[in-house]
Amino acid sequence: MSAIRLTDLTLGYDRHPAVHHLSGEIAAGSLIAIVGPNGAGKSTLLKGITGTLAPLSGGIALAKGKRLAYLPQSAELDRSFPIHVYDLVAMGLWNRAGIFGRIGAAAAHKVEHAIAAVGLTGFERRPIGTLSGGQMQRALFARLLLQDAEIILLDEPFTAIDARTTADLLALVRRWHGESRTVVAVLHDMETVRRAFPQTLLLAREAVAWGATADVLTPENLLAARRMVESFDSHAAPCRRDAA
Amino acid sequence: MLYDLFIGPFAEFDFMRRALVGVMALSVSGAPIGVFLMLRRMSLTGDAMAHAILPGAALGYLVAGFSLPAMTIGGLAAGFAVALLAGAVARATVLKEDASLAAFYLISLALGVTIVSLRGSAIDLLHVLFGNVLALDDGVLILLAGVATVSLLALAALYRPLVLECVDPGFLRSVSRSGGFVHLTFLALVVLNLVAGFNALGTLLAVGMMMLPAAAARFWTADITRLLMLAAGFGMLSGYAGLVVSYAAGSSLPAGPAVILAAGVVYLLSLLLGSQGGLARRALIWSHLER
């Protein structure tokens, strides 16, 4: 059963495609890394899957009735906002509590449990502005835990994060995999990918290779990916293949 | 003696009681909205929208004189129009939203002053620009109380998505489609409170009752719920203090500016002494580092 199915998907901004004619499916319960050079369309693909970016053509089908959680690169989060770690994490309850729902004792217990799972116990009453980068990422992972989604999308979750935090958060990713959730992570550290991700999609606007990580991350494929992004002309006609 | 200064004016004079009720109503809803404006980095947007209300209210004045419904409807219409237009211009052109807002409010201010001058006297103009908090009739008081009630209920209902939209708009988008609706409702609340404030404090000062207590409160707490309550408290305190001082000073100190000045004093004291990044506190930390 597939969790995410892409059919001839083209995504882009201002009619210039960033992801080109991508087809394939991500099986439910898989742990897959998306890698590729800068400008390969990795983050764009995640935005497409979350539905915040509408496809230019083709389609994305998510398994019915599955919840989706998405951790973007943290650019949009306002760290100076006066709010406590506890409240930031509790936002993960949105699906159950919504705008009006009460956060009862059981839910409060879940929040504390999630905070403990990422090793932030004792930080509940700290303003988020006082957290380090690694602690912030821990808090965001706690929020993901509470979202309790079947499909989890992570965009560069370990960038600029210390090794200890990366190891702890990777353990959480493995735990999700063990609970047969589908995890899709955009990553750039090949070492992490080889060690922890059974499957990989190598993206360079088009799929260069997609499959078992060892088969995908060959020197030839990586070189091909870099060449494809470099040679891609963003001022060309909106879609080369359609024009041909 | 103390009674004469602090309680006497309100016990003795109806217009002082009315003014007090008016500024209380204004600060109880305006200050929390100011907090959200500040946290969304929209302080200047509030200022620009306050100016934008002027030509609408002036048109109402031109048609019907000092008529509360006419000026209120005109102000609401102009406020909404500028809020939406400025957003649209910022999205459709190279101009950033602050620049397009500045353009709109400069035009609005000049237009409003011109329209009032067409028919009225210089005193009418002063009334429109600075309000007359000591002349609140029943209609205005009901409007102020109504706006405060609606605003507080709306803030309570939208509290979660509003906070979420400030902290992490991307996350809200990923879990809910309410972001756009929340933003528009919030802008509507801003316009509503500015129009209410306009009737008491005039276009130029109305925004002061929103922003100054909010900015002052930020120097005392790093928690959003306390911030909202503290801002409302500072607003009420400034309203009361401003009225007392203006009464004590006699006719030389007009009440509206006195209220805003009192809020200004609260802000300056907070800036100086506040426990969250106040200047005095910073100087202490600085000397600690140098040693």
TrEMBL record, chain A:
Keywords for this protein: ATP-binding, Ion transport, Nucleotide-binding, Transport, Zinc, Zinc transport
Domain ABC transporter per the UniProt entry, residue ranges: 4-230
SMART domains reported for this sequence: AAA
Family annotation (SUPFAM superfamilies): P-loop containing nucleoside triphosphate hydrolases
Short name of one Pfam family: ABC_tran
A GO MF label: ATP binding
PROSITE patterns reported for this sequence: ABC_TRANSPORTER_1, ABC_TRANSPORTER_2
InterPro entries, per database record: AAA+_ATPase, ABC_transporter-like_ATP-bd, ABC_transporter-like_CS, AztA-like, Metal_Ion_Import_ABC, P-loop_NTPase
Alphabetical list of CDD domains matching this protein: ABC_Metallic_Cations
Record-stated family: Belongs to the ABC transporter superfamily.
Descriptive protein name: Zinc ABC transporter ATP-binding protein AztA
Organism: Bosea minatitlanensis
Lineage: Bacteria, Pseudomonadati, Pseudomonadota, Alphaproteobacteria, Hyphomicrobiales
Gene: aztA
TrEMBL record, chain B:
UniProt KW keywords: Membrane, Transmembrane, Transmembrane helix, Transport
Membrane topology of the entry: Multi-pass membrane protein
Protein's name according to its UniProt entry: Metal ABC transporter permease
Transmembrane segments: 20-39, 46-64, 70-90, 102-120, 140-159, 180-198, 204-220, 227-249, 255-274
Record bears the keyword Transmembrane helix: yes
One Pfam short name: ABC-3
Organism: Bosea minatitlanensis
PANTHER family linked to this entry: ABC-TRANSPORTER METAL-BINDING PROTEIN, IRON TRANSPORT SYSTEM MEMBRANE PROTEIN HI_0360-RELATED
Family in the record: Belongs to the ABC-3 integral membrane protein family.
Localization terms from the record: Cell membrane; Membrane
